[in-house]
Specification:
binds zinc ion, mainly alpha, single chain
Length: 128
């Protein structure tokens, strides 16, 4: 029964991701009804995530440079996040203890937090 529940959960998640990717492929967030960033709306400052929806749209169309232009952090962190998901949700990944400790441990989380905060500050100071 637990396997059935896990399979239903996995299928639902996969369908949700596929649906979202379909929406982001066909609709450009710059010209459609997508929600605006509340931090930007309140402060007029870009948060580290601003432009991520547009970056997804550009990546789905193969426009990597444009995706980097709208959110450099999102595009460069994407492979890291995907690799982290592989380590977390595959049998192979769960055996990679040294890689998990080094690249996804406490210190790595602090580095990632610092990078996100630094990116958020830098993009508002230098306007990218
Ligand atoms: Zn934002």
């Amino acid at each position: 029964m637990e396997h059935l529940t896990q399979r239903i959960f996995n299928c639902t998640g996969a369908l949700l991701v596929a649906g979202l990717l379909g929406v982001y492929f066909f609709l450009d967030p710059e010209h459609h009804f997508f929600p605006k960033c509340p931090f930007l709306w309140l402060t007029s400052w870009k948060c580290p995530g601003c432009g991520a929806q547009r970056a997804v749209h550009q990546l789905l169309h193969g426009n990597v440079l444009e995706a980097i232009r709208v959110n450099f952090l999102f595009v460069t962190a994407f492979p890291y996040v995907i690799f982290g998901l592989v380590l977390e949700y595959t049998a192979w990944g769960r055996r990679q203890i040294p890689i998990r400790r080094t690249w996804y441990g406490y210190r790595a989380a602090l580095v990632a937090l610092f990078a996100v905060i630094a990116f958020g500050i830098a993009r508002n100071v230098w306007g990218f």
